[in-house]
Sequence to fold (772 residues):
Amino acid sequence: MASSEIVDPTSNTDVSLRRKFLHVGVPVIGVLLILATIGGIGWHTYQTTRTGVLKLTRQLLVSVQRYVVQDVSDYLGGATIGGVFAKDFVSHAPPSVTNNAFYAYSASMLRLVPQIQSYYLGDQNGGFILVERDPGGKGLEYTELRTGPAGGIFHHEFHDEDGKVIRTEENPADNYDPRTRPWFTGAINKDSLAWSAPTIYANTKQLVITASVSLAGSDSVKRVFAVNVSLNLLSQFLDGLKISEHGNAIILDGSGHIIAGHNFSKVVERSGNDPSKMTLDPKTQPAFQMVYDQYRVRGAGSHPFSRNGKNYIGMAQTLPSTNGWVLLMIAPESDFASFARQSGRESLQFSIIIVVLAVLLAGLLARQSRRTERVNHALSRQKAQTDTEAAALQQVAVSPGLMDASSEALVLTEELTRVTGARRASLWRMLHDGTALICDDNFDARVEGHSGGFELSRNEVEDFFKLVDAGSIVTVEAAAADPRTASFERFVMRDAGTRSLTVCPIRGTNQGRSEIVGVMTLEDARFAPYLVYFLEIISAIVAVRYGNSAEIVDSEKDAAPDTSAAKSLAPTRFDETLMQAPKVGGEAGNGLYPSVAVMVIAFSDPVLENDDTGAKLLPLIDRIASEVQDIARRYNLFSVKVAGHRLICMAGCTKDPDPTAVWRLAEAALALRETCMMLLSAANIEPIFSIGMDFGPAMGGELGEDPKIFNLWGETVTLAELMAQGAPDVGTIEVTERVYQALRNRYLFRSRGSFYAPRSGTGRVYVLATRR
Fold:
């Protein structure tokens, strides 16, 4: 099992989750609680303020209403109180001075009370006198109805401000009779004050209303005293009344006619100067209409209502000393609650400021906590990394044979992957002439497997060699996209699926000169850019190893294993039915052979330019067969068989393991490849063969009767044939991982990746390049 697949069951993530909750969750929850608290306080304050404002508004409107009622009463007081006073004053005057008393009282009142337009006095005998303001000046006009030969006439006397007569006039009365007028008929038989309907006063064209009261003089003649009050001044008073920013007031009589109020001039214009048509218009005065309807149903008092999404406060109050007049007032609730909204907005603004500050503080707290946690984690990682590096160096230091060229230094690549977090780590040794790199060891941390023996020539990866020659540690995040490492990625990294590459040249000393003696490569190393000093330590150790082992490697690289035991083996056997050869003796016998080396040479049909196939091929095939026989004898191969387009060569078919079998077969493969290449080239034929090798146990024995035929079968034979069939190019020698492990110290290989074989599973494939 790979180390990446190992899970520690004792690891506990609860601590990390709790820490994140304390560092992030608690500040966030605190901010939310602050928001909820501020929002609740703001809403409660708004509701409390609004309720208080509405209550205060109603009280204020009641006070305003009382004030308006009082002012209207005072406005009409000239008629009400004046009528009562005149009734007593005039009725007790002697008949001879009744008119003079009326004139004196009326003149005084007209000078003192601006809203009074005129005074009437009529009796049951048809007499009529009038005092009114002079419409053309500031004086008074006295009018008396007189009877002449030609009928009734009006005698007018115009007085200036000092009471002097300016001029007199007379004009026909046109049968005017005061006893037929509404102000007279309504009051003659009534003890209390009577109000007539509003009328347009002829002289001033203003709307007036008349209050009249009956009185009886000492001469027992019934008279009616009347006062005309101007409603235009009352409307001006109501228009000038500041109820609220958008509040208004209006006065209606008992029949619903408008007496005075807001925009009274428009009401008069709309009615065409007809007082009977001066009523509320639902289109232009809908709010007053709603209040008046509620008044008629519920009576006087406060009548709040809503219209078009806006709240209004309506008030209705009857006016005393009038004939059922009612005062209506309306005001939008927003006029009085605006400061509450303003207060709410200011509270919201302050709340937002508080929330922003709270969020900022919470963010700073969380950020500080996270930074503290990151620093602690960084310190923990740094300490753990330091401990890991110390442990790795200690492991390297105690490894036996680290500087011995005959032993593998697997601990170096293993510790490199563990410390740097790399997927794969490789150690490459530079050949003395600098033309090639040989992989001493390649460790794959995912599968925890070692490999080596790969060879890279400068011609194949020239840009990569230039990068190594530069002598600096370089990390390339995308090796395939960088021209310096693209060729290395194609040959070495692509099969493993790695992406990034760290190149650490190994600088050593050769004959007193400092030069590049090798290179360390790390694939997908997460921490390599931060561990330059560790890589330099390991590269120094590898440089010492290469320096100490240089002479040993040079002296042994061409040495062959001891083959003295192979000379006692039986002579090579050939398939007698296909290739003629001398008979052999000393058979190895039947059974299981523990270390058989099998080589399969697969030929394909050549492409010729004419039909003279036999004349071309038969001599060539005969020459190849003879060379195969010579090579088989030279390297003491056990058997050579021909099967169709295939040659099967075997070595090591003995009961006891033969350590030289795989080496002898590899030498035979190199010699056979060179011979075939030379013969085919001489015949002007492109290479038409590929070679596959495997090494391992196999079953074998002689079959049949005389002549007996030796046959070998098993997984080793099958895999050798698969290697020959799957060779990447013609003329190449493809071998299994077992052959690679047995020959890696003496031959150069290139990795071909992985392959799948039925019943055998997945394995790695290599190409045998040449001898070291």
